[in-house]
Amino acid sequence: MLRIPRPMRRHAAMLLTLLMLATSLSGCFGGDDGPAPPVDDPFDFEQLIANTTWYHYANATNALNTSHMLNGTSILIGNNTPFLSIGTYYGIGMSTFEPTIGATSDGNLYMSSWGNGPAGSTAIVKCTGMNDMITQLEYSCANSYDPLLPVANSNDPYVYVDPWTDRIMKFDMHALLGMTVEWSDNEGASWSLPTPATSYSVQDHQTISSSPYPAALHPTTWVFCINGNWEAPLCSTSFDGGNSWSPEVPGAPLGCSSGGLSAHIEGGENGNFYRGNIGCSGSGYSIYRSTNGGFTWTEHPLPTEESGTADTWNFEEAQVSVDDGNNVHAMWMGLDNMPYYSNSQDEGDTWSDPLMIAPPNGLEGSGFPAITAGAAGRVALGYVGTTGGGIWNGYLSVITDAFADQPLITTVQVNGMDDPLDTTEGCGYNRCGGFGDFIDVIVDHEGRVWFGLSNNLADVGIFATMAQGPAMRGPLEPLPPLLLGGPSTLA
Q1: pLDDT-based confidence at 200, cuts 50/70/90?
Q2: CB-CB contact of 414 with 451 (8 Å)
Q3: Cα–Cα distance between 415 and 430 in angstroms, integer?
Q4: CA 476, CA 79: separation in Å to the nearest integer?
Q5: Which range, of 29-33, 41-45, 443-447, averages the lowest pLDDT?
Q6: Beta-strand pair 409-413/440-443
Q7: What span, in angstroms and rounded, lies between the C-alpha atoms of 316 and 335?
Q8: Max alpha carbon distance in the chain (Å)?
Q9: Residue 258's closest CA among 288, 237, 302, 291?
Q10: DSSP character at residue 150
C-alpha cells in the first residue's frame, strides 16, 4: 500500500480545506453555481408532431436532429421560435382552374371557378366561416357572381381582392376579343358593369394587383400585366378603381427581351409594384419594379447563379411578394426542380443568399411556386411536390424570421399521405388539371395563410391552410386552432 509521509498529508489536508472554502464562497462572488441547467427543447409542444409536418433549415436540414445552440445561445428564440403546426384543406364544392384567391377584412375568402357561374360564366366562389371552425367543422361556399347580364366565361379567370379597400375585382380574358373588368364593393352582393381593360393586343396569362400609389379618383392604383405576344409583358394602369385603363406599356425596360409571360404582380404599402419572370435576354430570373404606377419598370436580377432556373412548363414563375414593412420576398424553382427563396430589404436592389426551402422528406421535385407575406420578415411559400411514384402533394412553408442568420422553416403537407392532390407522373412540371398554369396564396387580415389549390382527383377547388400554426400578422403567437378538414369536405 502506498504511504504518504505525514508532512505531505498535512499539506494535502490544508489544500483540500482551502478548496472547500473557496467552493462555498464562490456563490457569494458570482462564481460557478454548478452544472448549467438543461436547455429546454424548443420542439417540446407537449403534443406529437404530425408526420406531415417538418421543422427544418435550408437545404432540407432537419431541425429536430440539429443543435439549436450557437455560442451558448439558442437560435430558435424571438421571431425564430417554432410553433406547433399542422396542415389541412377545405373543399369549395365546385371545380377550379388556375385558382386565384382573395380575402376581405370581414373574413370571407374568394376563389375563381372556371365555367361554374350563371350561364356558364366564371364563378366567384365566396366562402364564409372558415376562420371560425374552432369547435365545429362548418363553413359555407357559394357563387357570389350573379349580375343581370353575366360576362361570358373566359379561358383564364382571375379574382383579386384589394387588401386596402376590400374591392373584389373579377377579370375575364377573352383572347383576341380583349379583357373585361368587373368589381364589387359589398362582398359580391352586386357587381359593376363590365369595362374593357385592353384595346389592341392579344391577351394571355394576365395578373392584377393594387397599391396605395397616389390616385386622384380612387384610394388605390390598379395595374395588370399580360402576355401580349411581345418581347416583354404589357401592362396597363387604372387610377379610378378599374373604370378606365391607360394604354398598354412595356412591363420591362425597352430591349429587355424577357418574354411575355409574367408571374403574379404584387403591390406594396409604399406604392411600388413588383412582378417576376425570366431576366432580360433570357438569363436567370429577375424581379421587375415600378415606382410610378406601372408606367416604367426596372430589372432586379435574383441570385440564381447556383440554383439555375426550371426547365419546365411554368419556367417563368419567379414569384414575388411584399411584406407590411415593404421588404420584398421572392421564390422560384431551380434547375433541380427544388424551391428556392431570397429576400430584399432595399426594394429589390440587393438580395439575400438564396435558401433551398424543401423539407427533409425526400422531395424529388416541385412546381407551381406561390409566395405571400404578412408582417415584416414573415413569409409563406406554397408549391406542389413529389417524393416519387407520380404522387403530388401540396406543401406550405412559413418563415417567421426571414432575416435571421439561420431561419427556421416550418413546412406542412396540406393533404394526408393517403390523399394525394394528383397522381400524374409529371404534374408539377406541366399544365396540370385544376392547377392550370398557376396557383395562389395569401395572408388574410387575421394573419392566417390560405393556399388556393385543386384536388385534381376529385376535381374540386380547395383552400389549404395551417389548422395550427403561427400568426403571420400582429403579435407572433399561435393562431386559434381550426378543426381538420380533408377528403370529407370534398363532397
Answers
A1: low
A2: yes
A3: 21
A4: 7
A5: 29-33
A6: unpaired
A7: 12
A8: 112
A9: 288
A10: P
- Residue 142 CB contacts under 8 Å (≥ 6 apart), including other chains: 93, 125, 126
Residue with grid cell 356558364, as numbered in its chain? 120
User: Phi-psi category of 269—alpha, beta or left, where left has phi over 0 and alpha has psi -120 to 50?
Assistant: alpha
CA 428 to CA 392: how far, in whole Å? 7
Place of cell 429536430: 64
Report the side by side order of strands in the sheet with 409-413: 61-62, 53-57, 409-413, 392-399, 379-386, 365-373
Q: How far apart are CA 144 and CA 73, in angstroms?
A: 52
Q: How confident is residue 228, by pLDDT bands cut at 50, 70 and 90?
A: confident
Q: Where are the domains of the chain?
A: 53-489
Region of poorest pLDDT, from 27-31, 155-159, 271-275: 27-31
pLDDT digits (tens, 9 = 90+) for 76-109: 999 999 999 999 999 999 999 999 999 999 999 9
C-alpha cell at 79: 421571431
Q: In CATH terms, is domain 53-489 a member of 3.90.1720.10?
A: no
In sequence order, what are the residues at sequence separation of 6 or more whose Cβ sits closer than 8 angstroms to the Cβ of residue 290?
223, 235, 272, 273, 274, 296, 297, 298
Would you say 301 and 251 are in contact if contact means Cβ atoms under 8 Å apart? no
The DSSP output letter for 422 is B
Q: How many CB atoms lie within 10 A of CB 188?
A: 21
CA separation for the pair 201, 119 (Å, rounded): 27
Q: What is the pTM of this model?
A: 0.91
